Amino acid sequence: MNDESHSFANLTDEGLQALLIRAIRITLIVGALASLILWKASGWRNAGMMAAGTAVSAASIYEWRRLARLISAKMDKQQTPGGAGLAVALFMLRLVVFAAVIYGSLKCFQGSVVPLLFGLALAVLSLVWEVVRLLRD
C-alpha cells in the first residue's frame, strides 16, 4: 500500500459544489455544440432532441447539487436551506417534469431517439470527466 491519498478523499463540500458546477458547464457547452452540429447534419428535429436531453442532463446535475448541499448541511448539523421535506418533494416533482420533457420531445420533435439518449448521457459523461480530472491531480 502506498501512503499517498487521492484528492478525491480530501474533497470538501465547496470542492464538490465546484465540481458539479463545472460538470453543468461542460454538459451545456458540449450539448449546445452537438445540437448545432446535428442541426446542420440532420435537421432541426434531431437537434431539438439533443437539446432536450442536454437540458434534462444539466438540470439533473443541478438538482443533485442541491441535494448534496442539503445532505451535507444535515450531516454537519447545520441549518438546512429551505427544509428537507420541501427539497425532497421538489426533487420528486422535478423528476416528473423531466419525464414530461422527455415524453414531449419524443412526441413533438419526432426525431431520432439516439440524440436524446446522447443528451441524457452527457450528465454522466461530464461527471466522469470531472472525477477523472480530480483523481489525476
* Rounded mean pLDDT score: 86
Relative strand content: under 5%
Number of individual domains: 1
Helical content (DSSP H or I, runs of 4+) = over 70%
H and E string: HHHH
Rg over C-alpha atoms, rounded to the nearest angstrom: 18 Å
Shape: flat
Largest beta-sheet characterization: none
Low-confidence segments, ≥5 residues, pLDDT <50?
A: none
Give the topology.
Elements: H1 13-42, H2 44-75, H3 84-109, H4 113-136
Describe the protein in words.
The chain has helices at 13-42, 44-75, 84-109, 113-136. The chain starts with 12 loop residues before the first helix and ends with a helix. Helix 1 (13-42) packs antiparallel against helix 4 (113-136) and helix 2 packs across helix 4 (113-136). The mean pLDDT is 86. The protein has one domain (13-136). It is flat and about 50 Å long. It is mainly α.
Task: Briefly characterize the structure.
The chain is mostly helical and 137 residues long. The protein has four helices and no strands. The protein has one domain.
